[in-house]
Design a protein that fits this description.
With 479 residues, this protein is α/β, with parallel strands linked by helices. The chain is 58% helix and 9% strand. The protein folds into four domains: 18-142, no CATH class; 157-306, 3-Layer(aba) Sandwich (Rossmann fold); 312-376; 400-477, Orthogonal Bundle (Arc Repressor Mutant, subunit A). α3 (72-98) runs antiparallel to α4, α11 crosses α12 (331-343) and α18 (421-430) packs across α19 (440-456). The longest helix has 31 residues, at 2-32.
C-alpha cells in the first residue's frame, strides 16, 4: 500500500512539475519574443483595416446599384469597429509601458512586456477570426423595387365608386380576374396605379406587380417587367424556359396581384408564365383595356368595370389646377379657358395635355388653341395642341377588326350627337356599308351588332337620354 501511495504521489508531483514548466516556458516566450508578437499584431491589424475598407467600398457600389445590403455585412463591420477600438487602445497603452525600463533604465520592464505580448497575441487571434469571417461573395442583393408613389393622382369624386368596387372585388375570394375598360385617355392607367399604391400600404397581397402589355405585346418584355418587380432575373433566351421560371417564382407568393395594363387582345397567361385559377388560387389579375370584349370574352374576366368621363365641375377644376391661375384675373382669358376646357370633353388626358401646353400663355395663344380644338377630328389630329390625345384615339380606330366597322364608325361621327339608330340604318344601307344581308331586319341586326362592338371598344356611347333607339358620339371624335 505504501508503495502504491508513494507512486501516486510521484505521478502527481511529476504532472505538477510539467504544468509549472509550461507556464514558465510560456512566460519566457512572451518576454523574449514580445517584438515578434507585437509585429504580428500590427500585420493582422493592417489586414483587418484593409478588409474593412474593401467591404465598405463594395457596400458603396451595391447601394449605388440600388441593391440591399446583406444583414451579416453591417453586423461584421460593427464587430470590427468595436474590436479595433478596444484592442488597439489596450495594446497601445501597454506598448508605452513596455518601452519604459526599470532599475534606473538598466533593465527592460519584463512585466509590461509579458502583458503586452499576451494582449497583442489575443488581439491578433481575434483579428484573424474577423478576417476569416469576411468571406463575402456578395455584400448586396437586388431588392424588390418599391412602387413609385404618384402624388399627382387626382382622386375624382366620379371615380370613387369604380375605385371602391375594384378594391372590394380584390378582397373577394371568389373573384380571380377583374377588368377595367374605357376610351383612350380616360385615366385607366392612373387609376390602377393608385390601386397598386394603396394595396402596398394595406398589405392585402404579399406582392403586387404591374406590367404594360401594349398594342403589340412582347412576351419577353412582359416577363421581364413582372420578374423585375419580384426581384427575379431572367437570363434565359427561351420564352418557354423563362415562363417556367417565372411561374415557379409566382407560385412561391401566397397572395399575389398581377396588373396587366393596356390589353388590346387576348393574352395567353400560360405563355407569359402566369399561374392562374387552379394552378395558383392565390393569384389575382387586374386588367385594363379600351375594349370590354377583350376583357369579358378574350380573358374571361369575372367582373368588368367601365371608367367614363369626368363630371363637368371636376373636369373644370382639374383643368384650372393644371393650367394654373394666371387667367383668373382676366375675364376675357378666363372665358376663353372655359371654352377650351369644354372642348377637351371631360377627358383627363385631353384636359391635362391642353392645360399644360397653355399654362401661363397669352390670350392670343389660348384663342388659337380654341380654334384648333374646334376643327373637325381629321384636322385636329395634326395640330400640336391635341396631337397626343388624338393619336391615342386614332390607335383605337385603326385597331377595329374590319373595314366595314371603321366605315360605320366614321358615319356615326359624321351624324354627331344623339342620333337615331333608324336614321343611321338608312344611311348605312344606302351607302352599301352593311354587306351580306337580304332584309332590313337582318341589316338592322348587323348594324346593332356593330354598334355594340363600337361601344365595347369605347368609341361610341349610350345616348344621354337613356333611349336604346339612339346612340351618342364622344365630343373629341366628332368629325
Amino acid at each position: 500500500m505504501d508503495a502504491i501511495g508513494t507512486g501516486a504521489a510521484a505521478n502527481v508531483s511529476s504532472e505538477a512539475a510539467k504544468g509549472i514548466f509550461h507556464q514558465v516556458k510560456r512566460y519566457i516566450r512572451y518576454v523574449i519574443f514580445y517584438q515578434k508578437i507585437v509585429d504580428k499584431f500590427e500585420q493582422k491589424h493592417r489586414t483587418l483595416i484593409a478588409k474593412r475598407t474593401s467591404v465598405q467600398q463594395a457596400v458603396d457600389v451595391a447601394e449605388r446599384n440600388g441593391e440591399k445590403i446583406k444583414a451579416d455585412v453591417p453586423d461584421w463591420r460593427h464587430r470590427v469597429d468595436e474590436v479595433i477600438t478596444e484592442k488597439e487602445k489596450k495594446v497601445k497603452d501597454l506598448e508605452v509601458k513596455a518601452k519604459t525600463k526599470c532599475f534606473f533604465g538598466l533593465c527592460p520592464n519584463i512585466k509590461s512586456r509579458y502583458q503586452l505580448s499576451r494582449k497583442a497575441e489575443e488581439a491578433a487571434a481575434t483579428f484573424d477570426e474577423l478576417i476569416k469571417d469576411c468571406q463575402f461573395e456578395r455584400v448586396g442583393y437586388p431588392d424588390v423595387p418599391v412602387p413609385i408613389v404618384h402624388p399627382d393622382f387626382e382622386a375624382f369624386k366620379s371615380r370613387e365608386e369604380v375605385f371602391d368596387d375594384i378594391m372590394e372585388s380584390l378582397k373577394d375570394a371568389t373573384t380571380g380576374m377583374i377588368g377595367l375598360y374605357g376610351m383612350a385617355g380616360v385615366g385607366k392607367t392612373s387609376l390602377v396605379k393608385e390601386v397598386e399604391r394603396q394595396l402596398h400600404e394595406v398589405k392585402l397581397f404579399d406582392s403586387v406587380v404591374r406590367a404594360i402589355v401594349s398594342r403589340s405585346p412582347d412576351i419577353k418584355e412582359i416577363q421581364d417587367q413582372i420578374a423585375y418587380s419580384l426581384g427575379l432575373k431572367l437570363e434565359e433566351n427561351s420564352p418557354v424556359v423563362r415562363a417556367r421560371r417565372l411561374c415557379e417564382r409566382l407560385r412561391k407568393e401566397k397572395n399575389v396581384l398581377i396588373i396587366l395594363d393596356d390589353l388590346w387582345k387576348k393574352l395567353d397567361l400560360e405563355e407569359v408564365g402566369i399561374p392562374f385559377g387552379s394552378r395558383h388560387k392565390g393569384c389575382k389579375i387586374l386588367l385594363t383595356s379600351r375594349d370590354q370584349n377583350v376583357l369579358s370574352n378574350g380573358m374571361d374576366a369575372t367582373k368588368t368595370f367601365a371608367l367614363g368621363d369626368l363630371e363637368n365641375e371636376e373636369a373644370w377644376e382639374f383643368f384650372r389646377k393644371t393650367a394654373g391661375d394666371s387667367f383668373e384675373s382676366d375675364e376675357q382669358l378666363r372665358s376663353t379657358a372655359i371654352k377650351v376646357a369644354e372642348k377637351c370633353a371631360r377627358l383627363p388626358l385631353a384636359l391635362a395635355t391642353v392645360a399644360r401646353a397653355l399654362r401661363n400663355k397669352s390670350l392670343f395663344v389660348w384663342r388659337d388653341a380654341l380654334q384648333q380644338l374646334q376643327r373637325p377630328y381629321l384636322e385636329k389630329s395634326s395640330n400640336e395642341i391635341s396631337a397626343e390625345v388624338h393619336s391615342a384615339i386614332e390607335l383605337s380606330i385603326n385597331h377595329l377588326s374590319s373595314e366595314d366597322l371603321k366605315q360605320i364608325f366614321l358615319l356615326c361621327s359624321l351624324l354627331r350627337r344623339d342620333t337615331r339608330i333608324d336614321n343611321l340604318l338608312r344611311y348605312a344601307h344606302g351607302l352599301g356599308l352593311i354587306k351580306g344581308v337580304n332584309t332590313m331586319k337582318a341589316a338592322r341586326d348587323r348594324l346593332l351588332k356593330m354598334l355594340s362592338t363600337l361601344k365595347e371598344s369605347c368609341l361610341l356611347l349610350d345616348s344621354k337620354s337613356a333611349n336604346e333607339e339612339y346612340f351618342d358620339v364622344h365630343d373629341l371624335i366628332i368629325l
